Amino acid sequence: MLKYALLGEKLGHSLSPEIHTEIFKALDINASYTLVETDPSGIKEELTKYDGLNVTIPYKRSVMEHLDALSDEAEKIGAVNTIYENKGYNTDYYGFGKMLEINEIPVKNQVAYILGTGGASKAVYQYLKDHQAKEIIFVSRSKTGEHMINYDDLTEKSGDFIINTTPVGMYPKIDESPVTKDVIRNFKYAVDLIYNPFETKFLKLAKAENLITTNGLYMLVGQAVKAEEIWQKRVISDDLINKIHEMLRN
Predict the structure, then answer these.
(1) Which of 74, 68, 115 minimizes the C-alpha distance to 92?
(2) What is the 3-state secondary structure (H, E, C) of 165-196?
(3) Does the reported pTM lie above 0.85?
(4) CATH number of 2-90+218-249
(5) In the chain, which end has fewer C-beta atoms inside a 10 angstrom radius, N or C?
(6) Considering the domain 95-215 in this protein, what is its CATH number?
(7) pLDDT tens-place string over residues 87-116
């Protein structure tokens, strides 16, 4: 039996075992997928125990020092969430793209504001850059600099995308939004990487202002399927992403 796992610090909320188990069933793969919680001192040892790994907060960057090689997208992003044969990949990049594709949200020549500067924001930024977004601006509470503003400045800005990569609004604090409706109404598309709850307050505000909205569930499934493509060395149809996405949202 093949053995796969998700490596992180606190993983009780993860849907990854459910998603990968469904992929194994659909593709008739004899494999298991487990959650591995560890502190930083245990990362290197865990890398040797599995046929493939996913990596999540807070180890997407620190794990890189233990790897022999990086894929192009992982190197550009500076973060890894998938490992195979001691090489690091970033499938968040592909999952984000699949999410935009299924919702028919264009990127080329669009102006995007990314809320947050954590690991997930870097994958979002790289995808938008590679697909010819016109301008990409990070929004941070504590930093300012080139291509970066703080939240106070955001009230005077407008664009096409507003993308939440922060945990604000995630269960159980579901009554919070990273920005107000006065900010949201200045955009066309609202994207939230959060998937629990399925519709965050941020997305509810956006929908009330007639924005096109999407949450992060499709991205989550899409990045998992891409990881399986790497591990199994095969192409997997988007039909499986759609099937698992529908199963999880119902």
Answers:
(1) 74
(2) CCCCCCCCCCCCCCCCHHHHCCCCEEEECCCC
(3) yes
(4) 3.40.50.10860
(5) C
(6) 3.40.50.720
(7) 999 999 999 999 999 999 999 999 999 999
